[in-house]
Amino acid sequence: MKRAIEKKRVLFICTHNSSRSQMAEGLLNYLYGTHYEAYSAGTAPSMVNPYAIKVMREIGIDISNYRSKNIKEFRDRKFDYVVTVCDHAQETCPFYPGALNYIHMGFRDPSAFIGNEDDTTMEFRQVRDEIKEWIEKRFGDLVEQANRGE
Q1: Does the active-site annotation cover 14?
Q2: In this predicted structure, what is the pLDDT of residue 144?
Q3: pTM for the full predicted model
């Protein structure tokens, strides 16, 4: 009889909790939701960027109901991993009480891109794909190890 897998809890943090951390939360829950429970928050939350919603929808992940959250909402919760996905969040939130592991993986801010709608969409796609690739390498390897019983 196989025992139930206890999900690891992951909190992705960026400054505004509008794009990178939202996409990371959606990707981890979609790709590895059987092993991880992902959340996201910001040090200065704003709103979920419509381009992030659009490019996630393109790959079958709906984050349209997500909202930007302040890291203070999670202050009393324990996490196996706290991941900063922008350099500013790492600087303003270098320590998160209740975290077992800290990871920093900075991605460029697609919200800062200036261009027309097509170019902006392309920028969001590129950042989404970079986050997805990193999640597959970083968290996918852990899933494979767990599946092998390591």
Answers
A1: yes
A2: 74
A3: 0.90
